[in-house]
Each structure stands twice: as C-alpha cells, then as structure tokens.
Task: structure prediction
Amino acid sequence: MKILFLGGKRFYGNSLLKELIRLKKFQIYVVYRNKKPAIKKTNKVFFIKCERDSEKEILKKLNKERYDFVFDNNCYKVENCKKLIQNLKYKNFIYIFTSTVMTYIYNNKDKVNYNKKIINLLPKKAKQYIKNKSNIEKYLTTLNIKYLIFRIHNLIGINDHSGKTNFLFDLSSEDLNKFDIKEKDKVQFALVEDVVKIVTKKMLKINPKLFNNEYLTIANRPFSLKDIIYERQKINKKKTSNINFKSFPIPLNYIIKKSEIRDQKHTDLKKIFNFLKKNLCTI
Result:
C-alpha cells in the first residue's frame, strides 16, 4: 500500500516515519518543502519537494500516484487541509490527521474532566492551535472521504521542539509551594515511542475497503505533579528556576475519561524517567 506522508522532518513525525519505513510494509512518498528529512531513499521510500499551500504544485507533483493513505502530520489550518484534499485527483484514500486531545474542549458532546478556566490560562498560540485543530476536524466531517483522526495528548520525548518535555521534568519541590500546586493538579501525556507503536499497529490493521471513519484518542493515565517531582528528585537533586505556570504548556486538571482512551499501554513514571535519564541533559 502507498502512503503520502506530510510532516516527517522532526520529533513525532520523524519517529513515526522511520518506524513505517522499518516495517517495509508500505511504499512511502515523503513530502518536504526545503530540506529533506534525514532518511535514506530506498526502493520503497520516495521524496517529493512540494509546497503544500500551492494548488499548482499539488496538482503537478502529488497526483502521479494513487495513495491508500494520506498521513498529514503538519496541517495546522483548515486552508492547508482544503488545498491538499481538493487538489488530489484520486480521492479513494484514507486521510489520517494528527490532532490534539484538547479539541475535546471545543466539542460539547465529549465528556472530559477539566478545569473550566483552562483555556484562559493557556498561551495565545496554544489557544489558536487547539481551535485550528478543532476546525480541521469539523471540516473533515463535511467531506465525502474516509478519515482517521489521532487525538494525541501532550507528547514528550527526545528532540521535543515544543519544550514541553524539558519544562515538565524541570519542576522542583519548591515549585509546589511557589505556584500552590495541589494534589488534585494532575497531567496526562504520551511518550513518543508509545504513540508511534500505537499508530503503526493501527495502520497495519486497517483494511481500506472495510474502514469506517474513526477517532482514536491516545493519552496516558493521569499523574500528580507531586509524583513527577518526587520521582525526578530521586534521580537528580538539581533545583530549577524560572518556571512560569502562566505559560505552562501542559494544562493542569485536564483528564480524559478512561472510556475515551483507546489501545493505550500506559507509560509508568519509572519507564519515563529511565528514558529521560538516558536521553535528556536536564535529568
């Protein structure tokens, strides 16, 4: 089967792309703008230089093959989604979209436990990001195409360009008092390596002919910030400073109900900290 893959240059997208290539189950057409992802070309991996916001380039460069999957990992606005889908001639594909768990906040039908002030506490860019992802999801429901939406909670791992990983694990016990963090203040996240396993497993099971539109939520079990700080300080006694919770990228008290978590093997704190100890300079 053939995959048109957008957004494989860094972090989660790069890790997923490498795993899909390693499996040798797909022909993968990797779309890039300026610089190719650090991946070798093989008889099953092809590179296409294309500006995704250009209708002319999409028509010219992305319509030479019929794809079974269009994996869109760098779509951040409805306009991006529209131009891509509308200008792909062969529509008999499954469009796979990387979204965020926080789209639940914009959907009253989904039941989520969270602090209602959470949106106001988030940075402006984060609010716009969530709103854009929610709008893309709504747009997909208006189309006559098959789609699979991965709603992923706060991703952590090496090469995290968002800074969430370092930020979360730089917390200290002093921060608990400084920012009045309570026992109930919990977070959820997902380790990149676990998410990659879940996503690839799901893709391998899909039968395009029998597939029905689906949302898949990926979120690890809630952790108390106190637990995280306690585990961290068993490894490293270093104190940190300049933690600003007004711009904290991981919302507190934002917990997904167990019934909404699909196919998730929970990452425990011991596994996460062993991972961080090996890979991050902050631990």
User: Anything to note?
Assistant: The chain has a mean pLDDT of 83. The first helix runs from residue 11 to 23. The two ends are 41 Å apart (CA to CA).
